[in-house]
Amino acid sequence: MEFLTILFLIGITAEAMTGALAAGRERMDLFGVVIVACVTAIGGGSIRDVLLGHYPLIWVEHPPTSHWSRRPRS
Question: What pTM was computed for the model?
């Protein structure tokens, strides 16, 4: 795995954790925590990509399901 990919995953995880903690402080149920965490992670990554000038956005260019359907490299 490339170094930038690892940093990307760490950043998304940190953004999701921040959203989950904020939802937990508001005493939301599990569904609310998951929704807020996902929106925070996707929104934070999108803002980062826009500020850095990376177009198209990473989740538009490489949808999450495309990673699951790929064959392993040989």
Answer: 0.63
